[in-house]
Each structure stands twice: as structure tokens, then as C-alpha cells.
Design goal:
Chains A, B, C: InterPro entries: Metal_Hydrolase (IPR032466), Uronate_isomerase (IPR003766). The structure is a homotrimer. By secondary structure, chain A is of the alpha/beta class. Chain A has 20 helices and nine strands. In chain A, 50% of the residues lie in helices and 7% in strands.
Chain lengths: 468, 468, 468
């Protein structure tokens, strides 16, 4: 049995299918550009073997365990440790069996497509995962993981990754990146400056993080001027490890452009009471504009991921911590919110701000019209819950007519799951090919143009937008 | 002439059409599970003949008369009585002619599909309804209605209904359900506990309703403790008549989890001034959480229908009363609103809360992510204005990738029109078959899986979610 | 080479394509009804030759220059004059070359489809526009423009326009309309009453505009009663020049129904401080209801275009003025906002209010339910950013099932670009044919009905709704 349909995600009939195939053939072997993601830099730095199938597919993947949890399976039984270090299921084989027995609940989801892709293409599995096949497939993957061609750097080469970005806090030591830089490994792994930990007063560790920030930069990050200097210094350090971008995960897209005096006072107020929600929101807003100003100087591309209401269940947050599937989107305004930042950098030809949303109703109404006029704005690809075949299709259908293709930036896999990288790029390429084929067969795009556009969407736009 | 295309609602070409047909063949004869609706229990209790064609198709169906009203036809001329009992058109044949002469305005609407289905499949009509055919079709239906095989229980059998739920207020005597329980009829008709009349302070009869609630339960429903006891008692009475669920039609999805002391004070404030909009909203919010707590005890599944702004035209409301087509949806937030309730019952494996929305922008952004992680949450099918072919398709397209199929609960016909029940289930089954076929032909779902899923969507998920 | 695919925008396969073709053949030669647009009345009044290709395709078209600006091209280099009268590029040939060299950024946009249509169908161009072909095509268009068959009235006849509406402020002298009325030209060009300049206190010229309004009407427009009289008088003047409609471009759809005493006080408050945002919004809201009342008297159809946040970049607004591509939509509420106006005129059978939105999330949730019940309400076609193939398809998919076809009003080209008129109607007709074909092939509409509906959508609904 073959898990994957060769023509998956293409139009289902006639000339559309043929054209999508031809378009896909022209880009399927292009290198992967992965300018935004969350893989662990330790993997490529250390090149140590991955653990076991449960470690690889279940325990770290919030797409997977949230769905299982929604069906009444306890996180403990999936090998998720509590913050206190409790862990019910210690046998990864039991975790894998539980996962396999419930694999049908993933029908119709992107997780299913990614996992089937990894199983077949990375590990050569040719049987559908189920309670019956669980043990056999577990053995097959385990066996692979012990072989040199399944070490992280070997997979990096096999996946044809030209460049991969990881994401680090300013407080990160960047040791893994340093280790890669000092090694003779030829692969390109770069960092991304993600300063949420020192920009979000509502982070419970905020004040302590500022102290560490001071230590790591040698600046007084508890004064406004020192705080800004610390950012500037740290950004340069990240650049030294290849970073070409910053990333900002904020609950809203709100920006502010206060006077420096007002910003200083706000900073001091936030230091006195970081839990004041109004000041915290305004501080994050102001800092986006400060980051934009720094980008004008040091050239780092700015990414704004807005709209996730994190840790919706406080019970789960208290017991298991963040990123446990309880980050729920909410309505997101961009039009008013981005005004102050755009007044400062929106017309700068050398500035790039890439926007991501979890509120699809803003695609056509707000994001495409904004990106379709401000030179600094570009649209990031469909994000998170919408990193899926239908999600990507809707992204193109709702943004292309207003913003075109050339205000978008190609694909981000945005993944923590190393083995899903080729699967995710495969889905994105196929969906774009299907979309382009539908434009051609409905007379909206010339065939020659389509072959040029698909190269841009797959490769050139990401390299250009992220300055890679 | 045949009114219905045998392949209606299927993909229009090739393998997709064939597969949709095959899927549909596998479920077309499954019994109808109707766990949520508004048919009159008197029909099955009394098994008396239905009136005339206008009574059956026009006068009680707000989908039909609102559209005719929008085209300038007066409600009076459609046989709708005013609250004062005025009625211009007393001849149902005239109402029918008016309807028939304007039948073209329903082109492209689900009403048209339902009515054509009822005309052809229930009454054997083979001509399109129009001014020309109005009288002939009127006679044909009238003739049928006089025959025993068109009595309600005969139709119930012919429609292959396994179970049907009606919806009653706590103030309802449940006489019709008692009559069925005492009879030797083998059909299964159950009630649903819909306490809006005693939970919505803005209902003009609220205070009076509480008095009746006291009488009917023997509790003092004008004290907080007595009020809660009255609910608990009445819920058990509904369970005795087969109820497995409660239903809540609220303007928003707001929930609260006040202390019992604060809730008591709120209740007293509401008794003093039920028209205070802020208190009324908070009381409804608190009561959803109280209902959830009771569900934990008595096992009734909870349904929340949120987002309809009722009686948009106060002139029509004053003259004709509620449910006259002027209930208009509005934006609906679920993420913040449901937080308090989910803190209480969201992680309970034995709890089921089924959510319905009239704000499609919340499908992908809020509802699917919430149902895709909270064990207690399930998504109800596309509701009301979206109980239509395109509406159902969008529901699947916007929720499946995040919540999967197994956090949904099958179909509700939600109808007041008895003869439309098979038509509505027919549409739902066809749309699901088309969706599944499209997943298979685009390589996103195995064919064997699709045949299993379609059984679940048609039959098993509804039985399981509603505990039937 | 042919720029246009003969079957563009039709379903891509099988019977759907054939049927769409047949439907289109039945309406492709129907006259154009253009009841809402922004072409310059001077063109048809004076019948003077159009300038040069850049003047025709680039400089006046905000769809075109905003996209070029988003790609880093300065407005000055596109021949856009600053308010101060500065203009960098004086050679239209250079502007044209810049446009041609960037023509690829329009791939997938409606602008591309419109321009290709104009190039091929109006000017006989058979080569794709690019840096290489720029000069040749420039010559070809220039050559055409000098010939009598390319004068405005000749094009009007060739485009088969039955009637075209322009849009004027109450302060406009209507000279061009007077000139047409006095001429022996047989074409029908009518005005539309667009009173924003004297209804929006936040217009910086508001107070001065009221003075001009007084002069032009002979009423004291600085008193409430005189102001209303001035409107009534001026509306009649517009009617004398053929106007059948008013048009209102408001940031929101808010309406109010204050007592005349309260309205008078509001008017006086607004005169004292027109910059008070709250009062300004309430005044616009009140004036929509006043306009509705006047429509009851004089029969002008009312159009409400709500939801554009104008001049998002204050820098561009200060330097170049309005309509420079920086009008960005925002979320728009209709349900609560329209309540007061609908209480006054919503049930009037002789009233027509046509609604337009830039917030697609309101199509199914708010607009279709409202238009599907209020006799006075009709839905305008997909507007502005959504005046595109996918935008129109979504409009039909999201409104038809609830509002049907007969609560819609056909197509508006809404254009400033004379040569794009046939292109835009061509797109609208094709999209409607594709939609109808898809309804027929999926068994939701009879084929005979589809041929009747397509006549209505193309011709009759616009004539009826706009009383033409």
C-alpha cells in the first residue's frame, strides 16, 4: 500500500490536473528555503540521533496531542511531562500505541498528511498507521533512527534544505549556533531574534528576564536607554549568527509611536507594575515601533505574528506550561493597529515587515489592501491552523486579487517537527500549483507566466523577502 | 418532469461524482437521527391529519414568508395572524397562489430544494410550482393529506425516523410527550429542555414565567436556591420524557462563573429590574455555567445556539410576535465568552457542550481551535441561514482541518416543517458525500476511510454525541 | 497572440463549461446598464479626445498605481501630481514604460484582466504588455486615440451603453450634464446625488462647503431647516438631470433617528466644532435617515457604501490628497447600525436602499439576512477590492442561499476608467454565468430558470432597482 496519492492536492480533473502536475514537476526538486521555524538548533549543532518514534511524532507536536486530548486522552498518557516533572507514561511504545489506535481522528487534517508523508518518504513505511500496525511501524522507525543516514545533518541534506532559520530569545546563549559556526559543517542554519520574553510585561518572568538581558548584553536593561541599547547590541549578535529577521508573537497587532519621553515613562511604569494590562499592551505596541526603527538601521526583516490568545485554559497552563494546544485565535484588527508603525516605516523602500494572522476574515478586508499599497508591508503565508491545504487555498483566493503574488513572501514551515519539513513544503508547493493551474484554466493567467510565478512562490520570493 | 436531479449537490464531473454517488448509496437508507428540532409534538401525539398546503408549506415556515415579505408581499396576505388575531387572507388557496406566483424568488435557496423535495418525494408532484400549476398542485397535496398514509405517524415511519427530539420550555406541561409515553405507538419522540423563558430576564414575561415555574415545580423559583432546585427537578422530568439534552438560545455566548453569593445577588437584582441589560446579560451568562454544572450531575448534553439578534424590527415584533423572519445574526465571540464555563467543565470527559454559530468567520478562527482541544466541546452542524448546501460545505472546509470530523456531531434538521425533515437530511448527506469525495479525489483521505467516515457523519456521531 | 481566453472565468470542464458558454452567449450582447460609477461627465459632454496611454491607464487609476507603489515605485514617477503641483515625470511615455516593465506584478489581479481586455478589445493590441513591447503598444494606443471612432461618444456607442450614471457633489454645477441635456446627442448620461461633502463634518472644507451649498441653493444651509431645504431643492435639480439615486460613502453604516429638536441641536454643535468625532459620526448617521425620508418623497434610490477607512497614510494624504490607494476597509457592522433607518423606511414598499460593503464577513452573517426580509433593502454587487472574479463568486456563494437573486441589483462597474467599462461588465457576466452553470450542474437550479435568471442579473434587476 502507498500512503500518498501522487496527484494529491491537485485539481481533480482534466487540463487543470495536468497543468498542476507540470508546474509541480518544475519546482519539486528546488531546494527548501525555511526562513521561519522552531526546530531545535541542538539537532544540527550536535548531529545526535533522534530518540524514539513517540519523541519524534507525538510528544513535541502540539497539533498532534491537542487533537488527541480533545478526544478525551490525557496529556500524561501521551508522555507530556507536567511542570512538576510528573509523567505517567514512561514507555514511548505505549504512547505510540495510543496514538496509533486513535489515528483515525486525524482524518481530513493536515497533521495526517504530514505524518503520512514523513512515514512514507522519510522512513519508508508502506502501511497505514493503526492499532494493528503500531508495533511494526514503531520498530521500523526505531531501526531507521539508529542509522547514520537518519542523523539530523544527513536528513538536512536529504531534505535539500538550502537554509533553515531557528528562533531564539535574546536571552539564549546561541551556543548551538556558535557550535555550527565553529564547525566545518557546510549547512546553513541561522537564528531569528524573538524578543517576546523581554518585551512582554505580562510574561511572569519579565523583570527577571530584564536582569538576565542586562547581564548578557552588559547594558542596564532596567533603564529605557540601556534597554534599547541592549536590544541593538543583541540584534547585532544574532546577525553575527546569520539572523536576517526578527519575530514578534503578540496578542494583537497594536503599535504605538510615543515620544521618547513618554516611552521612557511607560517603561518605568511597566517596571513598577508589569501586570497592568493596559500598560503592558501599550508597551508591546511601542516596542514594535522601536524594533521597526532598529530594523531601519540594521536591516533585519521584521515579522509580526498577531492574534493568538495564549493559554486559554489556565488549568493546563498551570499544570503543563505553555504551547499545549490551548492557544486560540481571536478577532484581529490591523488597520488601526498598524497605523503608528506604518507612519514611521511604512513608506521606506528598504524596510520589510511581514504580517501573519490567525483571523482569515482580515485577509481580504485588511491585509491585502494594506500590503497592496504600503511598500514596506508583505504578507506572510497562511499560519498555524491555516497551514493546511484549504487554508493555503483560501489565503491565495482572498489575497491575490488585491495584493497580487509579489507582495507575498513564499512559504514558512514554522515547524518544531524536523521530519515534517519536506511534507509541509510539499503541501505548499502543491497547493500553489493547483491555484496557478486554476488561474490558467479559467483564463486568468498565461501558462508561461504561471511557470515563472511558481518559481517565485517556491524559491525566489522567500529569499528576497528574508534577504537570504 | 422530475423536480430533482438524481446527482444533485455532488461534484459535477468524473471520479468525484462517481465516488460521491457510491458514498451516498451507502448511507441513503440509514435511519434519520433528528436530535434537535422544533416540530410540534402534538402531531405525533395526536396523529391528526395535517391541514392544507398553505398551512403545511407557507404559514409556519419563516424561511418562506420572510423571503416573500422581502419582495413586498404583506404577511397578512400570507395568512400570518397578527397578535391581535387579525388575518386578511382566510382562504389558504389564495395564500398558496400567492406563494406559487412568487416561487421564482426562491431560486438558488435551500427552501426551494427542500420544497421541491417534499413536493416530489412526499406528495408525488411532478410539475414545477408556478402560477399556472398552483391550483393543480394544491389539489394534489390536499388529496394526499386526507389519506391515512399521510398522517403524521405514517410519515414518521415512511421517513425512516429512528428518533426525533422536540424542544419545550420548562413551563410546558409535556402533555403531548406524556400521551406518547402512555400510548402503544412504537416511535421514539423525545423532549429537549429549553429554559430560555425562565433564564432570559429580557423576556417581557420573565417574572410571570418564574411564578409559573414555581407552581409547576413546587419550588420557590423567586429565590436563588429554589430557582436552581426548580431547574434540577424540571430537568429530571424532561429526562423522564426521553430528553437527553438542553438547548440555550442566547444573543451571545458569554458565560460567567460567579461565586454563589454573587450569583444570588445578581438573581435578586434581576428580579428587581429585569430590564437592566447589563445584569440580564450577566445572568444569562451565569446560568449557562449553572446549567453546565447540572449537566455534570444529570448527564444532559448541553447545546448553545449563540448569535441571533432577535426581533430586529420592533414594528413587526409588536404586530406579529417572534419568529417572523427578523432574527438577524451578529458578530459572535466565543474565545473570551466561553472561558468561564470551560474552566468549570471544559476538561470533563463525561461532559458534552455542542456549539452552534451564525457567524461563519468564527468557524476557523475560534470554534474549530476550541473544539480541537477541549474534550467537552463539540461543533454542531451549520445552523439556520447556513443550513444549506454552500453553508454546509463551508462548515466542513473551515472546521475539518483543525477540529477533524470526530469533534463534530452529525446533522440537525432544526426544522418546524415536518415534511422537510427527509429533504434536509438528504441535503446534508449529499453535501458530506461530496466533501468526502473531494478529499479522496484530491488525495487527502483514503477511499476506505471515506466510507467509514460517511457512516459516522450520517448516523453514529449524532447518536453518540446526543447519547441516543 | 491573443491576450484573452475565450472561455475565461467559466467552469474549467465538461457540462459546466458548455452551459456557462451558452448562458453567456445569451447575454453577451445585451446593453450595458451602468447605474453607479465615477467617470468624468466632461468626456461625454465635450466628446474631446482622450490624452495619452498613461493618462488613460495609469495616472487616474488607483487600482494600478497603488500596486506599483507597493512595489517601491514612487507616485511622482507615475505622473501623479502632488497637491502643490509638483510632478516628476512629465513624459507620459516614461510613465508607460515604468508601468509596462512592472506589468507582471498585476498577475492574478482584476486590473490585469481589465487592462488586457481594454488593450485587446478596445485598441486591438495582440501582444502582452512588457518592457519589450511598451513602446510599440504605446504607439498603437496613441494612434487610435487620434481617430474619431475613439472619441468618447463613439466608444459609448461601441460599448453598447444604454445608460451611464456619474456621481456629483451637491456643490457641482452640473454643467456637463446641462451641456448634454442641451445637445442633440442621443446617449443617456445621468447624475447621482452624492452629498458627502456637505454631510461629513470631518471633511476639512465642511463649513465652507455649507456656505457654497447656501449660495447654490438659495437656502440658509447653516440653519437646520435651511440645510434640509437645500438638500431637497438640490436633489430635485439632480433629478432634472436624470438622477435616480443618491450615494453615500460613509466610514460606517451607522444611522440614527433623532427627534427634529435633537437633530437641530446636533447640527448646531457640529457647526461649532466639526472636528468632534463623536458628533460627526452621529451627524452622518442622522443624515442617512434624513436622506431616506427625502427619498420617500422624491423617489431617489439610496445607495450606502460603508466601511472604507479613508486616507490611512496621512503622509500621502497631505502630499497627494485623497483617492491615492490608501483607503483601507475595516470591520463593518450593519445589524445594529441600520436599525434606526430601517425602523423609518425599512418596510416601505416604494423605498429602495442598496447596501455595499468592504467586509465580506458580513455578507452571510448580516447583509443577506437583512436583505432577505426587509422589503426596502437590496444588496449592491461586490464592491471595490471585491470587484473581481473571486470576489463576485464569493458574493453569490455567500448571499444567494439567504437573500436569493431577487434581492440583488445586478452589476455596478463603479469605475473612473472609461475603457474598463466593457471589461468589468464582461467579468461580471461571466462570473454570474459560471455561478449559474454550477447551480444547474449540481442540480440546484433548472436550466430554463438559469437562462431567465441570467437576463435578470445582467439587465433587468439593475433597471428595476435603479428605476432606469
Amino acid at each position: 500500500m502507498i500512503l500518498l496519492d501522487e496527484d494529491r492536492l491537485f485539481p481533480t480533473e482534466g487540463r487543470g490536473r495536468e497543468l498542476a502536475r507540470a508546474l509541480f514537476d518544475s519546482v519539486r526538486d528546488l531546494p527548501i528555503i525555511s526562513p521561519h521555524g522552531h526546530t531545535d538548533p541542538r539537532w544540527l549543532a550536535g548531529n545526535e540521533r533522534f530518540g524514539n518514534p513517540a519523541d519524534l511524532f507525538v510528544t513535541p507536536d502540539h497539533y498532534v496531542f491537542r487533537m488527541l486530548y480533545s478526544q478525551g486522552i490525557r496529556l500524561e498518557d501521551l508522555g507530556i511531562e507536567t511542570l512538576a516533572g510528573e509523567k505517567s507514561a514512561t514507555d514511548p511504545r505505549e504512547v505510540w500505541r495510543l496514538f496509533a489506535a486513535h489515528y483515525h481522528v486525524f482524518r481530513g487534517t493536515p497533521s495526517r498528511l504530514w505524518i503520512d508523508h514523513s512515514l512514507q518518504e522519510v522512513f519508508g513505511v508502506e502501511k497505514g498507521l493503526s492499532a494493528e500496525t503500531a508495533d511494526e511501524i514503531y520498530e521500523q522507525i526505531s531501526d531507521c533512527l539508529g542509522r547514520p543516514e537518519f542523523l539530523p545533518r544527513a536528513l538536512f541534506d536529504r531534505f535539500n534544505i538550502e537554509v533553515i532559520a531557528t528562533t531564539e530569545s535574546p536571552l539564549d546563549t546561541l551556543d548551538h549556533h556558535a557550535r555550527v559556526a565553529a564547525s566545518d559543517w557546510g549547512g546553513r542554519m541561522i537564528s531569528t531574534y524573538r524578543p517576546d520574553a523581554v518585551m512582554d510585561p505580562e510574561n511572569p518572568d519579565f523583570l527577571n528576564n530584564l536582569k538576565v538581558f542586562s547581564e548578557i548584553t552588559g547594558e542596564d536593561a532596567l533603564s529605557w536607554d540601556g534597554y534599547l541599547k541592549a536590544h541593538r547590541k543583541r540584534r547585532l549578535r544574532f546577525k553575527a549568527y546569520g539572523a536576517t529577521a526578527t519575530d514578534h508573537g503578540h496578542p494583537t497587532a497594536r503599535t504605538e509611536n510615543l515620544s521618547q519621553q513618554a516611552a521612557r515613562e511607560l517603561f518605568n511604569a511597566v517596571l513598577r507594575d508589569p501586570t497592568d494590562a493596559g500598560n503592558a499592551e501599550m508597551f508591546r505596541a511601542q516596542m514594535l515601533t522601536e524594533m521597526a526603527r532598529m530594523s531601519l538601521d540594521d536591516g533585519l526583516v521584521m515579522q509580526i505574528h498577531a492574534g493568538s490568545r495564549r493559554n486559554h485554559s489556565s488549568a493546563i497552563h498551570r499544570r503543563f506550561g505553555a504551547d499545549k494546544g490551548f492557544d486560540i485565535p481571536g478577532r484581529t484588527d490591523f488597520v488601526t493597529a498598524l497605523g503608528p508603525l506604518l507612519d514611521v516605516v511604512g513608506h521606506e523602500p528598504d524596510m520589510t515587515v511581514i504580517l501573519f494572522t490567525l483571523d482569515e476574515s482580515s485577509y481580504g478586508r485588511e491585509l491585502a489592501p494594506l500590503a497592496g499599497v504600503y511598500p514596506a508591508l508583505k504578507l506572510g503565508p497562511a499560519w498555524w491552523f491555516f497551514d493546511s491545504a484549504d487554508g493555503m487555498r483560501r489565503f491565495r483566493e482572498m489575497t491575490t486579487e488585491t495584493a497580487g503574488f509579489y507582495n507575498t513572501v513564499g512559504f514558512n514551515d514554522d515547524t518544531r517537527a524536523f521530519c515534517s519539513i519536506p511534507a509541509r513544503h510539499d503541501v505548499a508547493r502543491r497547493v500553489d500549483c493547483a491555484f496557478l493551474a486554476s488561474l490558467v484554466t479559467s483564463g486568468r493567467l498565461g501558462e508561461t507566466d504561471a511557470f515563472e510565478v511558481v518559481q517565485d512562490l517556491t524559491y525566489h520570493l522567500a529569499k528576497k523577502a528574508y534577504r537570504l
